[in-house]
Amino acid sequence: MQRMPFCPRRAGYSASFNDGVRRIELDGGPGRYSQMYVGGSDLVDASWKLKEDDYSLFMALVRNWSRSGGMPFEIGLKLDSHALDWYRAQFIPKSVRLTGMVGPWFYVSAQLEVTPLQKYLDPEQDVWAIIAELMPYYGSVAAVREMFNLLEQLVNYDWPS
Predict the structure, then answer these.
(1) What is the four-CA torsion angle of 37, 16, 33, 121, rounded to 10 degrees?
(2) pLDDT digits (tens, 9 = 90+) for 90-130
């Protein structure tokens, strides 16, 4: 799978998360909510600031994507946590735009359809979801991390010896 060598600008992207929850409007009160599905794709509006050669390479990657019939590629994004993760993505057709040129800089924007990562879909693998569930008992992220460190010490070092 092709890996996009250019990450979007930090201030240059936003996401619309597909949470898989549906709302049924009810007369005279709050709506009713239910889970429809897990793992729907998210939409990301991204922009890049590229120098001349990087712009030419970026556009070549877009053309290759188009010639392949829209095959997915990997791109580094910060979506589900503060850490950079590599997501599987595709350009939304006809969304790649050259939005400006200033000197040697080319400004490009596009909309991406991004597949969620399994590590965030599975509640047993999603470390941040576990931390969120423990917050009422420990009061802060730092306290939960300290508890994890103490458990690691107990299970991996104290008990075996």
Answers:
(1) 40
(2) 999 999 999 999 999 999 999 999 999 998 888 888 888 88
Cα–Cα distances (Å) from 34 to 17, 19, 21, in that order, read 16, 11, 6
Please write the tens of the pLDDT for every residue from 35-45: 887 778 999 99
SS3 115: strand
Give me Rg for the CA atoms of the chain.
21
Cα distances (angstroms) measured from residue 46 to each of 43, 91, 145: 10, 10, 33
Question: What's the whole-model pTM score?
Answer: 0.80
For residue 10, pLDDT over 90 is answered with no
Cα within 13 Å of Cα(105), Cβ side: 7
What's the confidence (pLDDT) of residue 115?
94
Report DSSP state, residue 118: H
- What span, in angstroms and rounded, lies between the C-alpha atoms of 13 and 10? 7
Q: What is the 3-state secondary structure (H, E, C) of 30-75?
A: CCEEEECCCCCCEEEEEEEEECHHHHHHHHHHHHHHHHCCCCCEEE
